[in-house]
From TrEMBL:
Biased composition (Basic and acidic residues): 172-185, 238-248
GO cellular component, one term: preribosome, large subunit precursor
GO biological process: endonucleolytic cleavage in ITS1 to separate SSU-rRNA from 5.8S rRNA and LSU-rRNA from tricistronic rRNA transcript (SSU-rRNA, 5.8S rRNA, LSU-rRNA); ribosomal large subunit biogenesis
UniProt-annotated stretches for the region Disordered: 162-185, 232-271, 290-343
Species name: Cardiocondyla obscurior
Record keywords, A-Z: Nucleus, Ribosome biogenesis
Keyword Nucleotide-binding included in the entry's annotation: no
Role this protein plays: Involved in ribosomal large subunit assembly.
Location in the cell: Nucleus
Biased composition range(s): Basic residues: 306-343
Protein name listed in UniProt: Ribosome biogenesis regulatory protein
Family: Belongs to the RRS1 family.
Length: 343
């Protein structure tokens, strides 16, 4: 009888596929719709959990998910790309995260313009190949094969009436393509700077807002003026503009300003005295004359004094050591042995 009863119960469970959306709980669930989190604080049925573990957990999960979905259907909805989605509120439960929540990427100029004008790009169902009537074959819409197909089409260029006969139209078209590529790259970099809130000048040199002090601005102006084939020889300076200090070492080809010769004997004497003072500041052993008293002093470095002390200690130790014995008149001049060692 027990076998028959178990079979009937299994059949009843298999046939009861559709259950009610209403679920009763003694303790209501705490539901956070912002994070789609449902917390069940009802006590577990230990007997059912031990006897039929999988079935009990399956039913418990189904009931809790049903309560969560019931709450979601009470939220306001909207249609996005032919799909109905619910607008979730702000989360109340703070989930632990190892990193910050990624911020949405800012729209580019084209995306913002398309959003304002309501322009929609249709990417779905778009073919990668396109029929070309001139070549009479299917060519890709992008890629290197597309460029090869364009070269086959544009093997000859019609010259205009006002065109220069000495100008190569193919090289002109290549330069125009390179300019478009450079413009697109510049626009891409500007979009990156805009997304990171970096201020950039629209045209020309950077303004004072991009430099912390006037020295950096003067260095930028000097580098911009000297960055020519003639190293700024034919570039006119701005009014009251001076070359940045210390920039001549970094700019190859830029002439350094030489010091003017002394105007009189007093100026020359002062320069020589400053030069001698700079030399005397070093730690070398030199003879120094005091101009005020006329007394000569010997300036020694700390390293020389330490070497002398070490040498004196070595001499004291050597005095106590035994002297080497002589060869007693048996020294052979042809051999490198014998004789008294000299120190």
């Amino acid at each position: 009888m027990d076998v028959v009863k178990s079979i009937l119960e299994d059949n009843q469970e298999n046939t009861d596929l559709s259950k009610s959306t209403k679920v009763h709980k003694d303790v209501e669930l705490e539901i956070d719709l912002g994070t789609l989190l449902a917390s069940d604080y009802n006590p577990l049925d230990t007997k059912a959990l031990k006897s039929k573990t999988n079935l009990y957990l399956k039913n418990l999960t189904r009931d809790n998910v049903q309560l969560l979905i019931n709450k979601i259907w009470e939220l306001p909805v909207e249609r996005v790309d032919e799909a109905v989605v619910a607008i979730l509120p702000k989360p109340e439960y703070i989930l632990p995260r190892s990193r910050a929540i990624p911020k949405p990427k800012p729209l580019t100029k084209w995306q913002q313009f398309a959003k304002e004008k309501g322009i929609q790009t249709k990417k779905k169902g778009r073919s990668k190949l396109k029929w070309d009537n001139e070549l009479k074959k299917w060519i890709p819409t992008y890629g290197y094969k597309r460029a090869k197909a364009e070269e086959q089409k544009e093997w000859v260029v019609e010259a205009k009436n006002n065109a220069d006969p000495t100008e190569n139209p193919f090289s002109k078209a290549k330069e125009a393509k390179q300019e478009r590529q450079s413009k697109n790259e510049l626009q891409r970099l500007r979009n990156i700077a805009k997304s990171k809130s970096i201020k950039l000048p629209r045209v020309g040199l950077p303004t004072k807002e991009h430099f912390s002090n006037s020295r950096q601005l003067s260095e930028a102006l000097t580098v911009a003026r000297m960055s020519t084939a003639s190293v700024g020889k034919f570039q006119s300076k701005l009014p009251k503009e001076k070359d940045a200090k210390g920039i001549a070492k970094e700019m190859p080809g830029m002439k350094r300003k030489r010091k003017a010769p002394p105007l009189n004997v007093i100026e020359e004497k002062r320069q020589n005295k400053n030069l001698v003072d700079n030399v005397l500041r070093s730690n070398t052993k030199i003879l120094r004359d005091d101009y005020s008293t006329g007394v000569a002093e010997i300036k020694q470095s700390a390293t020389n004094g330490s070497k002398k002390r070490k040498g004196a200690l070595k001499n004291k130790k050597n005095k106590t050591a035994k002297k080497p014995k002589a060869g007693k008149g048996k020294r052979d001049l042809h051999k490198k042995v014998g004789g008294r060692k000299r120190r």
